[in-house]
Design brief:
The protein has one domain. About 45% of the residues lie in helices and about 20% in strands. With about 120 residues, it is an alpha+beta fold. It is elongated. The chain has four helices and four strands. A hairpin with a 4-residue loop joins strand 1 and strand 2. Keywords: Plasmid.
Length: about 120
């Protein structure tokens, strides 16, 4: 197992232990109303990318509003505010368990976190 895969497994287990819904679990996918945490390996960054995925319905409604150039539409704001709030909560959970996190800087406006390693905690 490589380092990034091991890190992804540790992050995934920590979030699962905390009771957060993970986006790749069948219970979340079966419910279009449900959102969840995405945990994805990024070998090029030597890290794991973690972020909140809002419900498919909200994502579609926000994308439709952006397509209409309504960037201040309530659905766009709700998606952004939800992702920001969940990122803050996820960050606290991961840091509490000793992970080193930072906000993803290579995607402007992103609320995703880059988890590079587990510190000593």
């Amino acid at each position: 197992m490589d380092d990034v895969e091991g890190l992804r497994i540790e992050v995934y287990r920590t979030l699962q232990l905390a009771g957060l819904p993970l986006s790749d679990l069948p219970s979340v996918q079966a419910s279009p109303a449900g959102g969840g945490v995405d945990v994805v390996e990024s070998p090029e960054l030597g890290a794991v990318i973690v972020g909140w995925a809002c419900s498919a319905e909200l994502l579609k409604q926000a994308a439709d509003a952006i397509d209409r150039e309504e960037d201040d539409h309530p659905d766009v704001q709700l998606q952004d505010e939800t992702e920001a709030a969940m990122a803050a909560a996820i960050d606290r959970v991961l840091r509490r368990r000793g992970f080193i996190t930072s906000v993803r800087a290579d995607v402007p406006g992103s609320h995703q976190l880059v988890v590079t390693r587990r510190g000593t905690a």
